[in-house]
Amino acid sequence: MYHWMLLILAGLFEIGWAVGLRFSDGWSRLGPSLLTLAAMAVSFGLLSLALRGLPLGTAYAVWTGIGAVGTAIVGMLFLGESVSLLRLASIGVIVLGLIGLKLAT
């Protein structure tokens, strides 16, 4: 369970750096750029630790899935991105895939 918790944290930091990219304005804003780079380092570091106890394919898919779902939700809730039934259903499919990968490991 420890490795899964590391992986979830890595995914949350992936959301942080993906959102940070938006606020770094093409790396032209120092503060957001530094925070984005820090979130990237933490995310990759936690992923590498999680890989000590999880299969590579599963861990990478879950890491990117958490990042994709979380970033889409942040975009819809806080950044004014569109919300549609198809978009929500697609996020749901990704979440089901992540659950399936957890159950298969």
TrEMBL record:
UniProtKB keywords: Cell membrane, Membrane, Transmembrane, Transmembrane helix, Transport
Record bears the keyword Cytoplasm: no
Membrane topology: Multi-pass membrane protein
TM region positions: 34-51, 58-79, 85-104
Localization per Swiss-Prot or TrEMBL: Cell membrane
Top-rank taxon: Bacteria
Keyword NAD: no
PANTHER family: GUANIDINIUM EXPORTER, SMR FAMILY PROTON-DEPENDENT DRUG EFFLUX TRANSPORTER SUGE
Family that this chain belongs to: Belongs to the drug/metabolite transporter (DMT) superfamily. Small multidrug resistance (SMR) (TC 2.A.7.1) family. Gdx/SugE subfamily.
Name of protein: Guanidinium exporter
Organism of derivation: Tahibacter harae
